[in-house]
Structures are given as C-alpha cells and as structure tokens.
Amino acid sequence: MGTWILGRAAGVASYTLLLLLVSPAWCSPTPGAATCGLPSPRTRITIHATPVPCFTLVFVVLHLVVLALDPWAKVG
C-alpha cells in the first residue's frame, strides 16, 4: 500500500510543479500582464529557471520508478 500512496503522491506533486513551472508564462507576453497580479518578470524567470524544474524532474522520475516497482500497478 505504501508504494501505491507514494506513487500517486509523486504524480500529484509532479502535476502541481508542472503547473507552477508553466503558469508564470501565461500572462507575461500579453499586454494585460500588469493587471494579472503576477510578480515582476525577474521573479517569474527565477521561478521558471530554478529550482522548480529540478524538483519537477525529481518527482516525475520518482513517480515512474515507484510505479514500475509497484506490484499492483503492473507497469514494467
């Protein structure tokens, strides 16, 4: 049961980090970017550059490895 929970938690964390990684770019190139309430461009680039991509990659790999080892998932 522990591998099932860990695999699903890593998948949810991966999706959340991917959303965090992509979301600053949604309003940045538009003329209404100032009204979106997003942080400054420097802060958005910092979020997009590091450390979010590293954590995203770690959680995606963890998700795949745990699912490959999970006997209930039958992913091999």
- Estimate what percentage of residues fall within beta strands: under 5%
Distance between the termini: 18 Å
Number of strands: 0
Structural class: mainly alpha
Proportion of residues in helical segments:
55-70%
Q: Low-confidence parts lasting 5 or more residues at pLDDT below 50? A: none
C-alpha Rg (nearest Å): 16 Å
What's the main sheet like? none
Order of secondary-structure elements: HHHH
Description:
This protein has helices at about 1-20, 25, 40-50, 50-70. By secondary structure, it is an all-alpha fold.
Short description:
This protein is an all-alpha fold. It is 68% helix and 0% strand. It has 4 helices and no strands.
Key structural traits:
76 residues; mainly alpha; 4 helices
Give a topology summary:
Elements: H1 2-22, H2 24-27, H3 41-49, H4 52-69
Helix pairs in contact: 1-4
